[in-house]
Amino acid sequence: xxxxxxxxxxxxxxxxxxxxxxxxxxxxxxAGVASLGYEAFQYRTSATRELTTMADIGSDSIAAALSFxxxxxxxxxxxxxxxxQRIVGAAVYDxxxxxxxxYRNTKTLPAPAxxxxxxxxFENNDLVxxxxxxxxxxxxxxxxxxSDMIDAYVRLLRYFGIVCIILLAxxxxxxxxxxxxxxxxxxxxxxxxxxxxxxxxxxxxxxxxTKDADDEIGxxxxxxxxxxxxxxxxxxxxxxxxxxxxxxxxxxxxAAQGSNDGLWDWKLDTNKIYFSPRWIHMxxxxxxxxxxxxxxxxxxxxxxxxxRVRAQLAAHCQGSALEFSSEYRIRNKYGSYIxxxxxxxxxxxxxxxxxxxxxxxxxxxxxxxxxxxTDLPNRLYLxxxxxxxxxxxxxxxxxxxxxxxxxxxxxxxxxxxVRNPAGTLFAVLFLDLDxxxxxxxxxxxxxxxxxxxxxxxxxRSTVLGRPRFGKLGEPTSTVARLGGDEFAxxxxxxxxxxxxxxxxxxxxxxxxxxxxxxxxxVFTTPSIGxxxxxxxxxxxxxxxxxxxxxxxxxxxxxxxxxxxxxxxxDRAVARMEIETDLKRAIKAEEFVLHYQPxxxxxxxxxxxxxxxxxxxxxxxxxxxxxxxxSVAEDIGVIVPLGRWxxxxxxxxxxxxHKSMAREPxxxxxxxxxxxxxxxxxxxxxxxxxxxxxxxxxxxxKLEMTESSIMENAEMAVATLRRFKELKIGLEIDDFGTGYSxxxxxxxxxxxxxxxxxSFVMELGKNDDSSKFIKIILQLAQYLRMRVVVEGVExxxxxxxxxxxxxxxxxxxxxxxxxxxxRAWRLMRDENTQQPDIPANPAPGSGSLRPPEPDGIEPVLxxxxxxEAA
Length: 869
What we know:
The protein is an alpha+beta fold. Helices cover 49% and strands 20% of the residues.
């Protein structure tokens, strides 16, 4: 056995004895070491002081002999030191550090040839000192003395021996006292341990330990005795409680006979269970039936709830739960499920193990399936209803019993449905209120709840305005609230999807009218998604498909309805895959930049490039921005993606600048998202990227749309002004397709307007496009802004734009977006082939510059005429 284990298993008496011995030894040792150290220090201090005094006296005596170079007198003075037996060597050095006079006994080393720096030195059991010889304030030499310290060391050794004898004597006395003291401490503890062992063996909690003193051990004994008293009281109370519980169970059984709850009593040792007649009758069976097998209970519990109920029962029987309480669905005689709340308490034997558990069962179906705010059926009811309808559609004969179980008044309809299942289609409408969050945030949650109640009332009157079970073939409906501002309508017994569409149209019509919320007129519109029964084979799938269609309705402009088709599901799945892949692609940097040249329409030279990101997807190949940019904005990765595009574009343009000198220098245009503009540190990021890549800020142009600025105009304007301070170019992209507020250009620090390609496509087909472009050109000239026309694809478009005075453009006519290598070749070969420029520009175009307008007012007037048209 290891020494540590032996010590751990030793008695308290041995441990105390060792502890006291250790503490005494350590204390005495520390005291002896401290005393010896102090004595040594005193010896050294005394010797040092005496030798310093002798050196000072000697230097004064020998100063005259040294000043007159009288070696004989100096030697005589040194020789006089032999009277002190401790001085074993001495010497005098002149001011040139040469040995002048010396004295030593035969056993001592000769004096050093040259003096050391002034001070004291301990070496070879000797104390050495070097002191200056001063005459009339001037140092004329150095005196050296060596003192023998052997006598001091002998005295220290003698003192050390005395200290050791005292320490050993003290240790012996401490051990003698400790052995007596430890018995006083360990004795009561050993007696207490014996009493505890006796109580454990005999289970007799009336035994008490004896207290001998009022110290800490006495307090421990009092606490131990008090604990035994409490255990004794609790044991007595437990016996009384068990007797009272048996009486209470009898009273409860008598009272429950007149209530609607069913009782059960399960003897766990025999695995037999008793169900009261009421318990059995609640499931639709005659109360006279007798069930004793627990599987009569568990076998009817819904498969999704069964294991949970078993686990809750086991937890209570094992003591980890104070009581058994569980809500679950159980199948009745007719095949449908009802909700039950079951409670129970276990009876335990003397060993604490549960031997019996009894309780009651309450039908909570009605409260379980209703929404507390609107009193409509809730999601749970709707899902179970859908499940029963799906099963009934597959097995029509089973629907008779399911409906009968719900309501005997529906028997006639159930019979008709079994006889003629012509209307076996059904539809699920998923309804979400548009702008509900705005109303909730503006007027408060109380107003929001009031609006939800109003919507629920209108849905009832709209959808359930006629009897739910009427004549044969007449559709029936269920309105449910799913949560928040989401509702669902189940329409049964329809023949065509147009019938579901008509219901949706009625809902839209009735919900567009104003709601009165405490005197306020509030308007809201629903977006509705419709899923037909053929689109899914589970309640979850049908509700999911209706939800997908609802989001398509929102994307189409809100306030409408959309019928689900598989293409929507495929797009939703594809979008989810894009979201997952996009998050991974950001980390893996699977993106590349393509560059579309911006061309001067005057000399056809490339003036810059627009950086366009492409996603090099590992399985789908190269993806255009339209396939993933909006997703990136929705899931919050557009900021890191935009930062990468900006850094890569600046890096590439800086590399081109180094390899090809052009005048003026090429520029790089990078598109900026509204979420990037909303970032507080965006301007700082741009500065850091420019510093990192070494690109001149004048060669960077940031493109943004009108809508991205209006998302947070105040912050955007501050950021744009910072960019102007850095000499970064600012371009407003797709101008004319957003807010189209041309006069707003005067308030923003832009220097370039990019006309959207949609206006170029209409050239020659629509006069308004030509007028709009001309007005933008005039306005830009007045505001001293550049104009770049996007989407130039044909020679006719180019000729028209040149005739109107456009100076810069980009589009497929010049080049599609290409990779960096191809862009480099375009710059190198740009003068080899050029498309033709119209020989005769349009009248008034002159040198490709539009005529000077007479101020801004005529231009804005033209804008208003175009907008009015």
